[in-house]
Amino acid sequence: MTDVLERTPTRTTPRAAQTAALGVALAALATVVWSGSFVTSRALHDSVPPVQQAFWRWIVALVAVAPFGARQAWRQRAAIRRHLGFVVLASLLGVTVYNTLVNQAGLTTPAATMGMIMAASPVLMAVFERASGVRLGRRRVVGLFVACAGVLLLMGGGAGFAAGDLWMIGAACCFAAYSALLRRRPAELGGVAFLFTTFLVGAGLLLPAQGVSLAVQGGFTPTTATVLPLVYVGVASSAIAFFAWNKAIALVGAARAGVVYYLQPVCVALLSWAVLGETVGPVQVLCMALILGGVMLGAAG
């Protein structure tokens, strides 16, 4: 898997158009797969403690990525040591803290609302991108605000406030910071090696919290209803989705990928309706149309 780490091209060429299309497609793939993790987190809220959900998710992800990334990480160990601070920060934001906050929010916040709040992260991604000197095209900015308006209208159209919403706001901030940080990933750190290393470091950082959770809350009973969702979030929502998202950031940047991320509340709302029986009314459908329109406009900008 070849790693590409470059700024978004300023001129439209056939190669640039193909790169942009691939980046947008990978961002959409990650977004759709991640939507299922919000539903899974909500479904497991009364059977698996949040920290244990996160810990076993990353253990499964580590096992899934190891055949592809462990050898590369070993070959690049000198580069990893040189950039250890960057690796630890990325692991802390994107692995250790982000998903744990999502699982904590799932105790009290409906899955659809979790997806709506997470849709605020593209605004933060764009702010971080702009602060680092990346210019944002006019169409992208307009698309971002159209999609953001859809999210705000959706939240104001009946979504009540729960304690878990604060955890989700923290998760959105962590994910946005992680996505912006990826833009500065050293070129010598290969994508699969970087992924394996962040999963390993992130799971290691979770070990103390895992020990406390086991001592205070006890473990959970491994059943089909608990193990299969953890396998899903470990393999699909972690190994596959994080690779696709990291690659998308490298190809098109956090701002453009962030616009595509606005698809998440739409996907989560539909999945929560189909799987969990959460309601989707006319206001939600109208807002989803706004979000999709903003994504199409911003992704092309």
Report what the structure shows.
The chain is an all-alpha fold and 301 residues long. It contains 12 helices and no strands. Helix 1 (14-43) runs antiparallel to helix 5. The two termini are 27 Å apart.
Would you summarize the structure shown here?
This is DMT family transporter. This protein is mainly α. 79% of the residues lie in helices and 0% in strands.
Order of helices and strands: HHHHHHHHHHHH
Ranges with pLDDT <50 over ≥5 residues? 1-10
Number of helices: 12
- What percentage of amino acids are in beta strands? under 5%
Helical fraction equals over 70%
Computed CA radius of gyration, to the nearest angstrom: 18 Å
Number of strands: 0
Question: What are the key terms here?
Answer:
301 residues, mainly alpha, 79% helix, globular, disordered N terminus, transmembrane, transmembrane helix, EamA_dom
Topology, pairings included?
Blueprint: H1 14-43, H2 50-75, H3 77-82, H4 84-105, H5 111-118, H6 121-131, H7 138-156, H8 163-182, H9 191-217, H10 224-260, H11 263-276, H12 282-300
